Please model this.
Amino acid sequence: MDQKQIAKQMIQFNKTAFDNSFSAMTMVYEQNEKMLETFLTQASGLPEEGKKAIKEWMTSYSTGCSDFKKQVDENYAKVEEYFEK
Model:
């Protein structure tokens, strides 16, 4: 088997493993987000400022994860393009 073909298969395997792991992580995050939303609506003792801070944290985390996934996808595309040459 060609070295180039082996490298392409390894990259594809790593991309698939990353995508599956990221998907699982996203599902866990979404469940935690729902649970936290429920908690925040029922927590009468928590001040609005605290609730707002937690919601901003959740939004920042979600945005960070999206940006990270986008960056990883772009870099995998660059590597795949390199091996196509």
Notes: The chain has a mean pLDDT of 92. DSSP finds two helices and no strands in the chain. The chain has one domain: 3-84. Residues 3-42 form the longest helix (40 residues).
